[in-house]
Amino acid sequence: MNIKQRRKSTFWIYNSGFICFTGLINLFFEHPRFVKRYVIAFFANRGFPEIESIFLASVLSGIIGGISLIAVLFAIVKIEKPVTIRSLFSLYQFDWRGLCFYFIALGAFNLIEHLILRKYLFNPVESLLLSLGFPQRPAYSFDPVLLQFKWLNSMAIISMCWIEFPEELYFRGYFQKEIYKRFGAFWSIILSAFIWDIWHFFGLAMILRRFFVGLITAVIFHWRNNVWGVAVGHPLGNRLLVLLLIILRRKIF
User: Fold this and answer.
1) What is the pTM for the complete model shown?
2) Following DSSP, what letter does each residue of 49-98 receive, concatenated?
3) How far apart are CA 242 and CA 157, in angstroms?
4) How big is the chain by its Cα radius of gyration, in Å?
5) Distance CA 203, CA 171 (A)
6) Can you tell me the distance from the alpha carbon of 22 to that of 28, in angstroms, rounded to the nearest whole number?
7) What is the DSSP letter of 31?
8) Tens-digit pLDDT profile for residues 178-192
């Protein structure tokens, strides 16, 4: 298949459907206006404290989101016969170097964000988008009592890894590779980062910051041509941040 045929293939049709399907599932189960409030009420009515109910609802949304992404990955393998689970993983060896560079790049970005970007770019844009009605993922205030529930924190960590690992397999291990075949390196990085960004329907107010994070991830994947570094780094980095914020009694955004 030449470049023109690849651009005209059904790739865009069924992947648009996959992205909308999984994105809407995340929106309905993650945003408190939809299913999540009923899940919280379900646990609260069974005697769980409010803070545990919110946490368990987040765990459930992570599990369901992961299931939807894994279903999409298997559908891709079924539809595109040349694509295999092995090729999605780029499974030759674990990419320790990619994982290290992921954390170095993300750490540098977080430092620059803290010093400059948050005040002069991210916060003004986020405030503008919120004023226009764009959705924002709600902040969760973690009570120190949650640290006593080791089983609860373990469930949260496992469930979030459950969704973020297949998330990277799809958007980097498959989607970015396919865009690269059609449009080359530059557009594969830009488009995969942007589409991954807007896929987070429930938090579009943070679209600018998340796009920068997506660019970092896409560049590292393209450079290493191995999904393991970003697939492990994404959930691991988020969970370390969650545990740190729990300990410091801060809010998660």
Assistant:
1) 0.82
2) -HHHHHHHHHHHHHHHHHHHHHHHHHHHHHHSTT--HHHHHT-SS--HHH
3) 9
4) 19
5) 18
6) 10
7) S
8) 899 889 999 999 999
